[in-house]
Amino acid sequence: MNSHETANISECRILTLPHHPHEMGTLTVAQNSDGLPFAIKRIFYIYDIPADSERGGHSHHVEQQLIIAVGGCFDVRVSDGRNERIFTLRRPYEGLYIPAGIWRSLHNFSSGSVCLTLSSTKFNENDYVRHYDDFLKLKHVVE
């Protein structure tokens, strides 16, 4: 079985990263030894996002991600082909864990939003499923 056949949105969950409030500011830490469900291989972020934009719109065969709103807020819609859920990210010490085989799209960005993503793999275009119809076929939702 591949990740698309077995992945379920119930696996998507908010993780709280270690954070240390201080009168001079709060420090949030993400490192491989802090209970993340995968080892971090890549980090990227998007910013200067127009409010009416949608980002993401894909799934992965192998890659797992932790998506964090380090500035502003935005919604992440996840789907396993049968069920859908929307998570609102707005705290820089919380991240949405998305396993492989889950469709995700990001939208409803507030002004000044910064989306940080921790990834389990280096970039590999072949790991992407970029068309929802192809995703549904992999999920065996449609033939």
Q: Can you describe what's shown?
A:
The chain has 2 helices and 12 strands, in the order αββββββββββββα. It has helices at 3-6, 132-138; strands at 13-16, 19-20, 27-28, 42-46, 55-60, 65-71, 74-79, 84-89, 94-98, 103-107, 114-119, 128-129. Helices cover 8% and strands 39% of the residues. The longest helix is centred in the last third of the chain and has 7 residues, at 132-138.
Query: Quick one: how many beta strands?
Result: 12
Q: What topology, given as strand order, has the largest sheet?
A: 1-9-6-11-4
Q: What fraction strand?
A: 35-45%
Task: Write down the overall geometry.
Answer: globular
Q: Count up the helices.
A: 2
Listing every helix as H and every strand as E from the N terminus to the C terminus, the arrangement reads: HEEEEEEEEEEEEH
The Rg value, from CA coordinates, equals 15 Å
Fraction of residues in H or I helices:
under 10%
Kindly summarize this structure in a few lines.
By secondary structure, the protein is mainly β.
List the helices and strands and how they pair.
Layout: H1 3-6, E1 13-16, E2 19-20, E3 27-28, E4 42-46, E5 55-60, E6 65-71, E7 74-79, E8 84-89, E9 94-98, E10 103-107, E11 114-119, E12 128-129, H2 132-138
Antiparallel strand pairs: 1-9, 2-3, 4-11, 5-10, 5-12, 6-9, 6-11, 7-8, 7-10
List keywords for this structure.
143 residues, mainly beta, five-stranded antiparallel beta sheet, 2 helices, 39% strand
